[in-house]
């Protein structure tokens, strides 16, 4: 059903609907759907994708978690064919691909599956998920961050480095010294943010290991408010934070309830969001606010990296929906909506994952769901 055939990105008309709420009486709500070109709700609620249906019921329709329809849909997620295919590749010990390398190969190894499964709506009460999560905790370093490997995984890399050094007539440090330095260098803020956000979504918010990782993320925050991978040699001389390093810690913080946000986390959120907002989520804070990276304007799923939709999602979840500095990104979001009220999946590494979640270049339920969540949050809360 077409809601607004005369939709104009720049001059949207918002209005209030009087509704009768049982037990409450008449109240006014902002009809955020009035700015859509069409209503995609029925499409999102189709049963063949229980993950999208679950989040739509919960976050768009506002049905409570204990509602029978929501509970039934949540249960169905574990039987979803895409999820079954991912788990068909899981090893009995809980990992995917390599036991020593949870990061490589990209998109198929253990870290990536945990990120995907958390975004699809599973939790640790599924034994397969819990086994995978417990497996990756061995790659968490003492200070809190997650690395791409430990000593066993470092051996293969060391042999490659040593062989190249010998070819050039050079010596390499002893393995123990080299491995300790390399493991710490690969303790990255972007990786840790993604992993922690996933673990919180999967139900590990009160786990002391997750709390330690959150403290580490706060500790390594950069002076400008964003994040850099602190020990990565390529960043040694950098002072300006990176968007990828910044969005994932903020994503993790956005998954925390108010009672789980320490004063230190709250302060880190303020500084981190300001870093994104001063760049309007995608623009240089100098050079006449030119677009930093055009790839960020393409909507992606799953959320492994940075794009403006993820930026909008995280900043609005953290309570910045009324800040006008998100408006440039919001305008792009609204403009990309098609005539059916849907959004296109513009980028995804589907051919490199264990299963394709959605086809690139086609209307995407996941992108549409996340777009609607942002739009709803903004236009129900702005004065």
Task: Give a structural overview.
The chain is mostly helical. It has a domain at 43-77 and 279-383. The protein is built from 15 helices and four strands. The chain has a two-stranded antiparallel sheet with strand order 1-2. A two-stranded antiparallel ribbon has the order 3-4. A hairpin with a 3-residue loop joins strand 1 (16-21) and strand 2. The chain is globular and about 70 Å long. The model is unreliable at 1-29 (pLDDT under 50).
Strand content: under 5%
C-alpha end-to-end distance: 28 Å
Number of helices: 15
Give the helix level as a range of percent.
40-55%
Low-confidence stretches: 1-29
Sum up the overall morphology in one term: globular
Instruction: Report the mean per-residue pLDDT as an integer.
Output: 91
List the helices and strands and how they pair.
Layout: E1 16-21, E2 25-30, H1 41-44, H2 50-60, H3 68-77, H4 81-88, H5 110-119, H6 127-136, H7 151-167, H8 175-185, H9 189-201, H10 208-219, H11 243-254, H12 263-278, H13 308-317, H14 327-335, E3 343-344, E4 363-364, H15 365-381
Antiparallel strand pairs: 1-2, 3-4
Helix pairs in contact: 2-3, 2-15, 5-6, 5-9, 7-8, 9-10, 9-11, 11-12, 11-13, 13-15
């Amino acid at each position: 059903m077409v809601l607004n055939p005369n939709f104009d990105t720049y001059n949207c008309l918002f209005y209030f609907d009087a509704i009768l709420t049982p037990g409450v009486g008449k109240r006014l709500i902002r009809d955020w759907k009035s700015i859509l070109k069409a209503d995609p709700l029925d499409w999102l609620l189709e049963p063949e994708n229980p993950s999208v249906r679950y989040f739509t019921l919960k976050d768009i329709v506002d049905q409570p978690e204990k509602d029978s329809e929501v509970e039934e849909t949540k249960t169905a997620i574990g039987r979803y064919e895409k999820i079954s295919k991912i788990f068909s590749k899981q090893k009995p010990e809980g990992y995917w691909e390599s036991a020593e390398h949870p990061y490589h190969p990209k998109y198929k190894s253990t870290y990536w599956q945990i990120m995907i499964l958390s975004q699809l709506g599973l939790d640790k009460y599924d034994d397969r998920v819990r086994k995978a999560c417990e497996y990756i905790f061995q790659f968490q370093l003492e200070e809190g961050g997650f690395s791409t490997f430990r000593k066993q995984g470092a051996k293969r890399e060391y042999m490659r480095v040593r062989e190249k050094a010998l070819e050039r007539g050079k010596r390499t440090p002893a393995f123990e010294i080299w491995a300790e330095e390399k493991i710490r260098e690969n303790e990255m803020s972007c990786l840790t943010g993604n992993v922690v956000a996933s673990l919180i979504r999967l139900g590990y918010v009160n786990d002391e290991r997750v709390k330690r990782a959150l403290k580490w993320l706060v500790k390594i925050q950069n002076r400008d408010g964003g994040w850099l991978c602190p020990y990565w040699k390529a960043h040694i001389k950098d002072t300006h934070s990176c968007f990828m390093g910044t969005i994932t810690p903020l994503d993790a913080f956005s998954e925390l309830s108010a009672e789980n946000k320490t004063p230190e986390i709250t302060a880190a959120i303020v500084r981190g969001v300001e870093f994104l907002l001063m760049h309007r989520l995608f623009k240089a804070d100098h050079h006449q606010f030119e677009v930093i990276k055009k790839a960020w304007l393409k909507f992606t799923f799953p959320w492994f990296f940075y794009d403006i939709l993820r930026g909008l999602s995280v900043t609005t979840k953290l309570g910045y929906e009324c800040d006008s500095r998100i408006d440039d990104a919001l305008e792009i979001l609204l403009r990309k909506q098609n005539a059916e009220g849907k959004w296109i999946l513009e980028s995804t590494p589907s051919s490199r994952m264990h299963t394709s979640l959605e086809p690139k270049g086609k209307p995407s339920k996941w992108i549409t769901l996340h777009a609607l969540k942002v739009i709803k949050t903004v236009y129900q809360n702005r004065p």
